[in-house]
Amino acid sequence: MERDRPVQGLGERDGALRRSGFRPTMVGIGRRPADRVFPDGAFLVASVRGTVVGEEGFLLFFNRGLLSVERSELPEAAASFRAAAALRPEHPVVWFLLGVTLRTMGRAEEAAAALHVAFRLRPGHHDTLFHLASVHLERRRPDWALPALRRLIALRPGHEGAAFALGSALMALDDPEEAERAFRLAALLQPDGAAVNNNVGAAIMAQRRPRAALGHFRRAVRIDPSWPEHRKNLGVAQLMRGELEEGFRDYEWRTGQAVWQWNRSFPGKPVWNGGPLAGRTILVHYEQGLGDSVQFVRYFPLLKARGARTVFECQPPLKQLLATAPGIDVLVARGETLPDFDCYLSLMSLPHRCRTVVDTIPRDIPYLRTDPEQAAFWRERVLGHARPGELRVGVQWRADGGDRSIPLDRFEALSRVPGVRLFSLQQAVGLDELERLGTRFGIVDLPGRRAGAEGFLDTAALAKAMDLVVACDSVVAHVAGALGKPVFLALPWLGNWRWMKHPDCTPWYPAHRLFRMASPNDWHGVMLRVAEAVADEVRRARS
């Protein structure tokens, strides 16, 4: 069932799936016109006037509520249905209408309470089951929606909306295998539904099967070529497979999504279409996270090679760090005055405009530099806490995203590797874990690191002083990679598209070694393999 308008977040996995680039089309359970919410209103009036109800007061309030619905006067309708329910609390129809009215008004908590009463009084009513499940999805309680949806499907297997909603609930509960089955049932009932086919693909992608998902995304695009979400999902699947030229082309559709928050508009200035740049000034503005800026700033020398004068508008915390990146003529932080320019582009559109394939990824690494004095200062402090011959390992466990963050207690095996000295590279967040476990794991947290933009300079200098960095998928891992340091990168089950399909390496950072989960949520197994690999590095250094 295609939705009428974007409904942000419904049935969506808030951790791994979103942050890996996927956004399933959600079940359309937003506000609807009264004639669609109450299609059986005439039947209900006839039923009440027949054998069900005889009290004049109940009829008065009940019919007044229906009339208010027809007039789209929903607060008045809710008040009338409440009055009717007070007179006949055992009547399921009035509770159902009250619940649907409240839900249409956006009052989900009250709607859920009314619909629960209607369900208790009439447990086999299809519409009650569907609205009850839908309001639980709106309340971000997919676990409460499951029983109603499964009961509805058992009673009415051909209910298209039930199977779709069940898939959305299961995706929210991080059960993509069962979600795939539900969406496939919905696709059997509605084979030409773009949203259904898209969501089959999203459920398959969440199982780390991009090749199998491609066909479903392509079908969704064929059915509705104008829907940006489906085309963007197709692009992400292609990127994960290493099909960069096609993937970056379709990933451009991300900017057309209603929920996309990084679009910029500069009236009178055109978006750069990949044409000649000689003698022109191009503004590139950041998009998405800090790590994205560090990764894709490598493209500026390509713009300079085309004869462009370049301006980069970056996130304020990165301005001092990115000042060393080559190819940037003018670096400004968001909020600062921009110089004049001829055209502009989002940073993450550069790979598409530069027609990137795997073999043409810019690999001139290192492309960031540390200040020599700062590097010497932090190196001296690091050496003062490490015994001669110890492998200096910088560790970082918390990312801006719970699915990518590693619980610090999973670093226990690494802390027990002989010949290793661990140093914290964690910034700002995650320090509560360090306070609790740092001493036990022997993690050195050097004092004196600054906050804000200067903190990134200190972190970069610390990473430069390490023999190896062990990190989650975060900006610190990108900074270390841009400095040319070896990085052991621990990835969640559904790694971001940028890490593609390679089991243990990436063309973006040749010194990175990837450690992927063998099964969902298995940080313990990942970090055991990281500890074994670090132990091998110690033995290699001593041989």
From TrEMBL:
**What InterPro entries does the record tag this protein with?**
TMTC_O-mannosyl-trnsfr, TPR-like_helical_dom_sf, TPR_rpt
Mapped TPR repeat ranges: 92-125, 194-227
Name it. Answer: Tetratricopeptide repeat protein
Keyword check for Ubl conjugation: no
Q: Which UniProt keywords apply?
A: TPR repeat
Question: Which Pfam families does the record cross-reference, listed alphabetically?
Answer: TPR_16
SUPFAM superfamilies, per database record: TPR-like, UDP-Glycosyltransferase/glycogen phosphorylase
Entry annotated with the keyword Cell wall biogenesis/degradation:
no
Gene3D superfamilies, A to Z = Glycogen Phosphorylase B, Tetratricopeptide repeat domain
The secretion signal range is none
